[in-house]
Amino acid sequence: MTWVKICGMTNLEDAVTAVDAGADALGFVFCEKSPRSIRVDVAREIVSRLPGRVEKVGVFVDTPVKQVDETLRRVGLTTAQVYSKSFDEWIAWHENSDRKLILAISGGTLKEDLAGSLRASQKRITAFLVDSGSGDLPGGTGERFDWESAKLGIWNLGMAVPVVVAGGLTAGNVDGAIKTLRPWGVDVASGVESRPGKKDPAKVRAFVQAVRERDRKTN
Questions:
Q1: What is 3-218's CATH superfamily?
Q2: C-alpha–C-alpha distance, residues 39 and 42, integer Å
Q3: 3-class SS at 147?
Q4: pLDDT digit string, tens, across residues 149-193
Q5: Cβ of 116: how many Cβ atoms within 10 Å?
Q6: Which one of 7, 24, 113, 187 is the catalytic residue?
Q7: Strands, E, within the chain: which ranges?
Q8: 62 in catalytic set
Q9: DSSP annotation string for 16-42
Q10: Residue 31 catalytic?
Q11: Are the C-beta atoms of 2 and 184 separated by less than 8 Å?
Q12: Among the options 14, 24, 113, 131, which is catalytic?
């Protein structure tokens, strides 16, 4: 089945909604520029009340390794999702950590980054996340990248390491994203919100249902 992550959790109600809808993972954004940013103490309280089967992912943008490691442990997160200009320090951290690692790259530059991404994948990271952002907004833009131009790179990368796709996904287009890109997982934030940082329960349920329906058709 396709791995489903609902990102940008800011409150317990939304987290419970996502879990009940069938999400495999929840994302907590530790970036002050994001409208979905969450404090460590708030995230810790939410995570403490979630079932163990759900992956709890911390999302970090250009954050020092030591700070990320401390946040993961204080909150009780299972995975670090990292937007960074350098993969090497994160791969080194992952080799000595009991946490999972998702490295984020841009779908718009995937062709240029593919060789380096494939080399990094040989270090057995958990997954790559291909997102639509760049520059000051590495993710969470609510915009899709060009699926057609990126699909060959994603297919090639996916033969070496799991690939998660994000960026502008909704219940209405996630079926097409999975058919075109063949990812291991999908990641959504703004596409299931009523406003930035607040999830819409109906949209969350519809998104997960759309993914599962595509899984049924594929199988």
A1: Aldolase class I (3.20.20.70)
A2: 5
A3: helix
A4: 889 988 988 888 899 999 999 999 999 999 999 999 999 999 999
A5: 12
A6: 7
A7: 3-6, 25-29, 55-61, 79-83, 100-106, 127-131, 163-165, 185-188, 193-195, 198-199
A8: no
A9: HHHHHHT-SEEEEE--TTSTTB--HHH
A10: no
A11: yes
A12: 131
